[in-house]
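Exercise 3.2. Students should predict the tertiary structure of the chain below and write it as structure tokens, then compare their answer with the key that follows.

Predict this chain's 3D structure.
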Amino acid sequence: MYRRIVVALDGSRLAEQALSHAVAQANRFETELVLLKVLEPLPDATFTAPSARRRAQEASAELAQDYLEGVAEGIREQGIEVQAVQREGKPYVEIVRYAEEEGADMIVISTRGQSGFSRWLVGSVADRVVRGATVPVLLVRCVEDCKD
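Answer key:
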């Protein structure tokens, strides 16, 4: 039923709560996991030299890849095929776009479970992914203190 499951990660404990659910699905369906981290572009700053901005973006991408590979290694030890992928842009846009472009069958993402005014004020990547995705989305609600 599922061949490729995308897990959206941002480096937080909140996002990592989705991992156990994604791993369970990967085991159940004997499928591949894709760990996806979207890096938002650094804001333009008129006082920053372009070369410094570029170096900061490269360092950020390197740290993100190290993080993803570390998470992936732990999952590979469980016998699951895993890819570590980075994208740059708005997280909800890139998560949906990646799933469509790469033929993902499911997206797994965690959520704080906010509702009402707080969700409207802050916005929710998970909510926007649900609204934009063309594949099933498994939302994993934060069940413990997961503030970083």
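Discussion points: Residues 50-76 form the longest helix (27 residues). The domain at 4-141 is CATH 3.40.50.620 (Rossmann fold).
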